[in-house]
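Supplementary Note 2. Why include the ligand at all?

Several targets in our set were suspected to adopt different conformations when bound, so apo predictions alone were not considered sufficient. For every target with a known small-molecule partner we therefore ran a joint prediction. The input for flavin-adenine dinucleotide is given below.
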Amino acid sequence: MKVAVIGAGYAGMAAAVTLADHGIPVTVLEAARLPGGRARRVEAHGFALDNGLHILIGAYRETLRLIERIHPAGKRALMRLPLDWVIHRQFRLRSAALPAPWHLVVGLLQAQGISFTERLGALRFVLRMRSARFGLAGDLTVDELLDRFDQSARVRRVLWHPLCVAALNTPPRRASARVFLRVLRDTLGAGHDQCDLILARTDLSALFPEPAASYVAARGGSVRTGCRVTAIDRCDGGFSVAAEGRQDVFTHVVCALPAHQVNAFLIGISALAEVVEIVERLTYQPIYSVYLGYPRSVRLTAPMLGFDSALVHWAFDREALCGQAGVIGAVISAEGPHQQLAQDELAREVHEELQRHLGPLPAPSWTQVIAEKRATFSCTPGLARPPQRTPLRNFLLAGDYTESDYPATLEAAVRSGINAANIVLGKA
Ligand SMILES: Cc1cc2nc3c(=O)[nH]c(=O)nc-3n(C[C@H](O)[C@H](O)[C@H](O)COP(=O)(O)OP(=O)(O)OC[C@H]3O[C@@H](n4cnc5c(N)ncnc54)[C@H](O)[C@@H]3O)c2cc1C
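The joint prediction is reproduced in token form.
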């Protein structure tokens, strides 16, 4: 068995680690200089920033398992915070340290910033969904689902909408209720530690993809970064993969490329015509990450803070996370008018927005805007996603856009990589 994994994002590296665990000396080919893909380190202004500020949750079973196993610091690489959903000066929901569903019943009944009737309404919605095992007969949008359960404008604004955008990166008027409910099932509907918010204490390449690359190398595999694959063709013995003027033959390929790039490779393979069609139908949503370099004394009141704002959804205190004093990172998820702004205008607006919420701040000495125009696919009702097993034998797909219970997240990516590897191993 000679296996190529193409792409060293979280999906590709999860596949590579799983194969390495079973003694397969896998070859990972990655176009970028360092592994991590959309969750990678970006060096700027003397700091190791991230391509995107990421939130993990306690329900990310496989991602957490792999990080804790592979990272030299184990669990200490992550900061685990019991659910404390704070929309600055507007709303607070804390999960109680009680068995499910009491952690949520008590948490919602004690939520601050919404009326008692609204608290009861939100609770009734979750309990009704729980008794239906968070399933739906057909799919609809998140807003349509919230209409059915008479959720008030205020509860939507401070709880359901931010939760939907954070999890699905799709506006609630377009987002899939079925996928949203699966996220609720595995977080608010599960044990209290499943809704923990988990933040990385290092940059996202160092969190998993880099230690995973060392792990694979130590087991006879290799991770070739700066190595762009230019063609994948069927040949005697399997697949011929062309990269950097070299052509190698592999018995199996795990293709872990992003959705918007994968079709360029699949289009010439007739057996994959159906997959190509499914991928072609995907549309995408942006995420903007805006970093501001303030004097060292500037801090937030929590490592992560939500805002009831049309622009900034979340802000992160990088000092609390990874010791980057004065660095505040702001996240703007999904589509919106901010996409029309030039980067320096956007950074200025984010600074002004932070001042409106937090009070006067000194001017930042530097700003860095990272715009990921195709951060995730739009997670809309009834969306088809291709399975990891394709009609072409020994050619597997991995990536956050492939079939999963989860929206486009690290966990969807990691689970897809593990499943693709298990198919190669004949275990799935
Ligand atoms: C800004 C931002 C914020 C996000 N926030 C969160 C969050 O808070 N929580 C969460 O769970 N998820 C979040 N996500 C989503 C998460 O990052 C992705 O779901 C996940 O990283 C996808 O991993 P992947 O391995 O499927 O794809 P990718 O990370 O895209 O990996 C694909 C790899 O293929 C490589 N590649 C491309 N072309 C070639 C080629 N020709 N040859 C070789 N290699 C190639 C790429 O360089 C890349 O490394 C966020 C994403 C973004 C962009």
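The domain at 83-195 is CATH 1.10.3110 (protoporphyrinogen ix oxidase, domain 3). The chain has three domains: 3-41+55-76+202-282+381-424, 83-195, 284-377. Comparable summaries for the other entries are listed in the accompanying table.
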